[in-house]
């Protein structure tokens, strides 16, 4: 995805005045590369060092600051080596202990020295004590700080004292430019940025620490709005830049599409017809489409993609579909081949498992333009694969690919100076707030209805203590001519997790159900074995398929009406919903049994409650976002997506709406302010955000 990019941020410099190379390297781990970045490195929490507490009234379990004289300080060897000091004030004596200490600390705590200690008081064998308190020497009557003490996120080798000193220096020397129009700040009730930063780095002791730490203070609201606005500006600029680039105009010739629809045994839903029309209109203009086709499990995204690919072929261009797993890619290839063979269109198939000679022949036909359509796994983006007239790239389950992989497929197409159109598909519905933020530069089509004939799936929660009853249910269902899945989370035994393995489960079920034909599919099988087992299951020759999550997406066997998920508490909500969607594809009543092990963790219980109570993928996605946060939801861990540091998509929905509106007017009326805001928060790192 060749996109507009801001000037790249400079690499970590050797340092700047007052910061040497070693310190600069540690600061870079916190994404601090210049003094201005220190200003936006905001506290996690605060400590109140503005008051002293008498030793006699210090409450156990609460942090306190005491001041007193060192009565004694010794290194004791029992029960273990530790530094023990006795500190006295007018009200009593307190024991301070350090299990890890330096000679300098012992020297600091010389008898007769006056010190201040900050830490949590607790009851000890010899009365009140503090373990590993923070300590520094003072003179009698020395003044107390006038603001709460900030505690910052840090990294190994970088202490709080150093960070505070650097941040205070930046606050004193850096000019904080106010880039938001005063009218906008007044309308939203936002303080100025300089005022907000001072309030967060050095809050008044009158402000309750809880208000600051819960981020309810107006200063936090200003920070969260700026971050959301910078993100919206970045995505809006990406959208505008895409509209300025050129792509082949794929005119909507209805010949191939009409013939395909006439031969299908089903009619498109209203939602599918709407999505087809939206995509066809985008493909017909000479700007690269970047559209997300979003629909629940079984909503019929593949036929929509097929019609889009035919529009490319009708216009004389190639189309390629990339899927994250071989099973899913092969299912797409088989389905497209079945649909398009009557039209005389052959679909190429590229995967890592195909023989070298077969792959070379397929690649040659793609390079010559003899094959107009290709389906594959990540093998599609490997260097030798040439798609000289690629007009449309389709990425299924797009969140399961890294950003660089999605970029690579799009960059395969180089029809002169024209880039291909991009259609991304996801069966994990994206909550509205997430669509407005991380996906704001995409156009979105939603399939919000299921094709007729899809039966609701009944979900049951069953403790693994009742495994025998579940096996009996499988036996009964298969005896009635139905088929079943049994899904396991691991392939081989993990002592740490103590999970049932696919292989062990297979062996157990073969012994318990000798009258059934049972297949086994997992990621370690050779592709040919995997394909043969899946084909036998699809043909009804295998009654029960034991599998890992390789069958999570793409498997369509209408006769399968029972799904058992082993250790369901270990799966994410999106996975559980996807797996459940493998059944209910025929006319028979379908059941999904979630087998769980006791004791359930709090998060495991929360996930199972959500999946048990909801069948709507959009409702599940909202809960998933609430439980996991946006980072994992969008696949950021594997894609490098820069996450929001301070804003919360769920809690800040009103600010997100306001930022979305403000981004358009700021770019139009105050472009320099918009650029300054983007540089302040993203500094050239927005390229991956927009991929």
From TrEMBL:
SMART domains with a match to the protein in the record: DEXDc (SM00487), HELICc (SM00490)
Entry-linked Pfam families: DEAD, Helicase_C, RecG_dom3_C, RecG_wedge
EC number: 5.6.2.4
Keyword Hydrolase among record annotations: yes
Catalytic reaction equation(s): Couples ATP hydrolysis with the unwinding of duplex DNA by translocating in the 3'-5' direction; ATP + H2O = ADP + phosphate + H(+)
Domain Helicase C-terminal: 480-626
PANTHER family with a match to the protein in the record: ATP-DEPENDENT DNA HELICASE HOMOLOG RECG, CHLOROPLASTIC
Function: Plays a critical role in recombination and DNA repair. Helps process Holliday junction intermediates to mature products by catalyzing branch migration. Has replication fork regression activity, unwinds stalled or blocked replication forks to make a HJ that can be resolved. Has a DNA unwinding activity characteristic of a DNA helicase with 3'-5' polarity.
Official protein name in the record: ATP-dependent DNA helicase RecG
Organism: Pseudothauera lacus
């Amino acid at each position: 995805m060749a996109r507009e990019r801001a000037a790249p941020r400079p690499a970590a410099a050797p340092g700047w005045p007052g910061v040497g190379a070693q310190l600069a390297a540690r600061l870079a781990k916190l994404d601090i590369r210049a003094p201005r970045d220190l200003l936006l490195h905001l506290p996690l929490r605060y400590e109140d060092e503005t008051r002293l507490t008498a030793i006699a009234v210090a409450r156990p379990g609460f942090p306190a600051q005491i001041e007193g004289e060192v009565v004694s300080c010794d290194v004791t060897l029992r029960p273990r080596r530790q530094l023990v000091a006795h500190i006295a004030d007018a009200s009593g004596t307190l024991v301070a202990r350090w299990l890890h200490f330096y000679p300098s600390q012992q020297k600091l705590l010389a008898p007769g020295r006056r010190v201040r200690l900050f830490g949590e008081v607790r009851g000890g064998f010899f009365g009140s004590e503090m373990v590993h308190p923070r300590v520094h020497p003072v003179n009698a009557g020395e003044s107390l700080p006038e603001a709460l003490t900030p505690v910052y996120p840090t990294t190994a080798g970088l202490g709080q004292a150093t960070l505070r000193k650097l941040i205070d220096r930046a606050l004193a020397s850096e000019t904080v430019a106010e880039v938001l129009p005063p009218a906008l700040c007044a309308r939203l009730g936002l303080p100025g940025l300089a005022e907000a930063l001072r309030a967060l780095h050095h809050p008044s002791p009158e402000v309750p620490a809880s208000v600051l730490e819960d981020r309810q203070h107006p200063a936090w609201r200003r920070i969260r709005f700026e971050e959301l606005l910078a993100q919206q500006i970045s995505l809006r600029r990406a959208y505008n830049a895409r509209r300025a680039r050129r792509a082949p105009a794929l005119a909507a010739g209805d010949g191939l599409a009409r013939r395909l629809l006439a031969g299908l045994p089903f009619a498109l839903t209203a939602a599918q017809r709407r999505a087809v029309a939206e995509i066809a209109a985008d493909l017909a203009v000479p700007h690269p489409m970047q559209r997300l086709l979003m629909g629940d499990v079984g909503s019929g995204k593949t036929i929509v993609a097929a019609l889009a690919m035919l529009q490319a072929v009708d216009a004389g261009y190639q189309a390629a579909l990339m899927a994250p797993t071989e099973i899913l890619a092969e299912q797409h290839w088989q389905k497209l081949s079945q649909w398009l063979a009557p039209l005389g269109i052959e679909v190429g198939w590229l995967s890592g498992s195909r023989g070298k000679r077969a792959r070379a022949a397929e690649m040659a036909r793609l390079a010559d333009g003899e094959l107009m359509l290709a389906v594959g796994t990540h093998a599609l983006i490997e260097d030798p694969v040439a798609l000289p007239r690629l007009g449309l790239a389709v990425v299924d389950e797009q969140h399961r690919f890294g950003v660089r992989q999605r970029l690579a497929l799009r960059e395969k197409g180089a029809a002169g100076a024209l880039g291909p159109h991009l259609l991304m598909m996801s069966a994990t519905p994206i909550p509205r707030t997430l669509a407005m933020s991380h996906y704001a530069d995409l156009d979105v089509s939603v399939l919000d209805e299921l094709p007729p004939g899809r039966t609701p799936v009944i979900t049951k929660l069953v403790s693994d203590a009742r495994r025998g009853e579940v096996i009996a249910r499988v036996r009964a269902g298969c005896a009635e001519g139905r088929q079943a899945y049994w899904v396991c989370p691991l392939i081989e035994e993990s002592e740490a997790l103590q999970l049932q393995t696919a292989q062990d489960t297979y062996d157990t079920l073969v012994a318990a159900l000798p009258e059934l034909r049972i297949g086994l599919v997992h990621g370690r099988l050779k592709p040919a074995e995997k394909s043969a087992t899946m084909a036998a299951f699809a043909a009804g020759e295998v009654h029960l398929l034991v599998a890992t999550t390789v069958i999570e997406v793409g498997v369509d066997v209408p006769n399968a009406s029972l799904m058992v998920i082993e250790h369901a508490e270990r799966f994410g909500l999106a996975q559980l919903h996807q797996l459940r969607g493998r059944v209910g594809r025929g006319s028979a009543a379908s059941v999904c049994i979630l087998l769980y092990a006791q004791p359930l963790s709090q998060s495991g219980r929360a996930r199972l409650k959500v999946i048990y109570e909801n069948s709507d993928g959009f409702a599940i996605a909202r809960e998933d976002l609430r439980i996991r946060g946006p980072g994992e939801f969008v696949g950021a861990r594997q894609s490098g997506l820069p996450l929001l540091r301070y804003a919360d998509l769920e809690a800040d929905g009103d600010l997100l709406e306001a930022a979305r509106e403000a981004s358009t007017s700021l770019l139009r009326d105050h472009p320099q302010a918009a650029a300054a805001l983007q540089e302040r928060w993203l500094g050239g790192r927005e390229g991956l955000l927009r991929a």
